[in-house]
Amino acid sequence: MELIQQTDDIAAYLAADETIDHGHPLVRETAARLRRDAPDAHAYARAAFEFVRDTITHSIDADDPRVTRRASEVLEQRTGICYAKAHALTALLRADSIPAALCYQNLGVLHGLVALKLPGREHWSRIDPRGNKPGVDAQFSLDRERLAFPVDPESNEEDYPVLYAAPHPAVLAVLEAAPDRETLCNTLPTAL
């Protein structure tokens, strides 16, 4: 699948906003801590991915009722659904000047992913910080996707090729409106 930038302006994939708040002190501190042990951008991107995938629980897996949206909230509360975890990883990557985009799959409901473009690489690579569990094995891989869920076209599932500079409005709307995870799970968007 060919990934399509929503905008040709690469600076948009480095920008901060209310959700991808990589200027927040907690995001900056986390990025600095991860960067200490990473000799280059590739190592940092892997460390940020593994940190989000492995240390921030997926709220459905953990049966955590909290709903997080902003990257700083996700890092502070250490929980979130796929969208929130994607927001946290995007912010950590951008905090280290690595262009990062939000992208989505339709698996019956929308599933959130991250794409990154490392220095010296011509193409974007999608990664999935959702979190592993039995039957789910997402890995950091730039050349061959190792996502949590491969799409099944026979079930009308699809990968959306657009790389968004900011979270999609449909995703933000449900995260902002849901008072708890149960409500959120009942209102997840089914398409973009």
**Runs with pLDDT <50, length 5+?**
none
Strand count = 8
Strand order of the largest sheet: 6-5-4-7
- The H/E string reads EHHEHEHEEEEEHH
CATH class: Alpha Beta
What is the CATH topology descriptor? C8orf32 fold
Cα-to-Cα separation, first versus last residue: 18 Å
What percent of residues adopt helix (DSSP H or I)? 25-40%
Tally of DSSP helical segments: 6
Give the biggest beta sheet.
4 strands, antiparallel
Q: What coarse outline follows from CA principal-axis ratios?
A: globular
Count of distinct structural domains:
1
Strand content: 5-15%
List the helices and strands and how they pair.
Elements: E1 4-5, H1 25-36, H2 41-55, E2 57-58, H3 71-77, E3 79-80, H4 82-95, E4 100-106, E5 110-116, E6 125-127, E7 158-159, E8 162-163, H5 169-177, H6 181-186
Helix pairs in contact: 1-3, 1-4, 2-4, 3-4
